[in-house]
Amino acid sequence: MQIPPWFWYAAITLIAWGVVGLLQKLSTNHISAESSLIWLVVGFFLLQPFLYSGRAMFHYSGVNLTWALLSGVLNALGAWALFAALKSGGKASIVAPLTALYPLVVIALVPFVLHESITRLQILGVACALVAVILLSA
């Protein structure tokens, strides 16, 4: 069985964001949430030359650039709120799994925005994820 390319990107995401949860707590033990957010952005800029596809950055439609910009703004807001939660005394072992439930928001919105259907199995997965976070934070 051949593993699809998307799986490897998802695996990198899992590992990177898993380590990030620890690093974010370490950083907010010593610097502010706002400073942590600035360094997160610096990290994005340092990585960008390695990921650049060569396509002109503004070659896309205004609608698509708007979606990407909104994505960036909400990503930054979420990162800042995560840093603030950790800085204000949140335990990484609780805050990171709780904030990792963001796919539940996606699952709730995709039927309305992308017109994708949600299966009963996926709903069961959501319930399991909620139970898992409750157990992790106990």
Q: Can you give me a brief rundown of this structure?
A:
With 138 residues, this protein is mainly α.
Describe the protein's architecture and organization:
The chain has 138 residues and is mostly helical. 76% of the residues lie in helices and 0% in strands. It has 6 helices and no strands. The chain has helices at residues 5-28, 33-51, 62-87, 92-99, 103-113, 120-136. The radius of gyration is 17 Å and the shape is globular. The termini are far apart. The model has no long low-confidence stretch (mean pLDDT 87).
How is the biggest beta sheet arranged?
none
Determine the N-to-C terminus distance: 39 Å
Percent strand: under 5%
| Overall strand count | 0
The helix/strand class is: mainly alpha
Task: Please count the helical segments.
Answer: 6
The 3D shape can be described as globular
Rg calculated over all Cα atoms? 17 Å
Low-confidence stretches: none
Helical residues, percent: over 70%
- The averaged pLDDT comes out at 87
The helix-strand sequence is HHHHHH
Keywords:
single chain, 138 residues, mainly alpha
SSE arrangement:
Elements: H1 5-28, H2 33-51, H3 62-87, H4 92-99, H5 103-113, H6 120-136
